[in-house]
């Protein structure tokens, strides 16, 4: 079997900080520490049954087994508009205002597009 060695560039890369932190957390958990991991968004409670059921039902629907439409689903854009009205007050037209659905990376872009 051929052994594949890391390149010189790979060898020079620094160790990832989060990898080290997560290893320490895992070791502490193995040693019995009661840890609630908020760093990765891991829930500390089980997902409610009605949400699991809705996910299972959606997974069986053909339209959700493919890529979403380029401009997104209208029902989802409306849900975002409803959420913004409830949480922040402004009423937005989901057909005229847009935001990226790569939520974590582009959250500031979404807020800016809705607030302007």
Write structural notes for this entry.
- It is a single chain.
- With 116 residues, this protein is mainly α.
- It has a domain at 67-115.
- The chain is 50% helix and 0% strand.
- It is extended and about 55 Å long.
Instruction: Output the number of helix runs.
Output: 5
Characterize the main sheet. Answer: none
What class would the helix/strand composition place it in? mainly alpha
Low-confidence stretches: 111-116
Radius of gyration based on Cα positions: 21 Å
- Rounded mean pLDDT is 80
Give me the secondary-structure topology.
Blueprint: H1 8-12, H2 17-30, H3 49-59, H4 74-88, H5 103-115
Keywords: Aminotransferase, Transferase
Cofactor: pyridoxal 5'-phosphate
GO molecular function: pyridoxal phosphate binding; transaminase activity
How would you sum up this structure in a few lines?
50% of the residues lie in helices and 0% in strands. The protein has 116 residues and is an all-alpha fold. Residues 111-116 have low confidence and may be disordered.
Sum up the structure in keywords.
about 120 residues; mainly alpha; 5 helices; disordered C terminus
């Amino acid at each position: 079997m051929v052994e594949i060695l890391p390149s010189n560039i790979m060898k020079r890369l620094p160790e990832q900080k989060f990898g080290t932190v997560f290893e320490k957390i895992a070791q502490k958990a193995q040693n019995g520490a009661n840890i609630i991991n908020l760093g990765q968004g891991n829930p500390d409670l089980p997902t409610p049954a009605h949400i699991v059921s809705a996910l299972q039902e959606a997974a069986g629907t053909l339209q959700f087994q493919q890529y979403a439409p380029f401009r997104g689903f209208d029902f989802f854009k409306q849900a975002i508009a409803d959420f913004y009205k409830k949480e922040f007050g402004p009423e937005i037209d989901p057909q005229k205002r847009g935001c990226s659905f790569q939520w974590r990376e582009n959250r500031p872009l979404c807020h800016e597009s809705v607030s302007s």
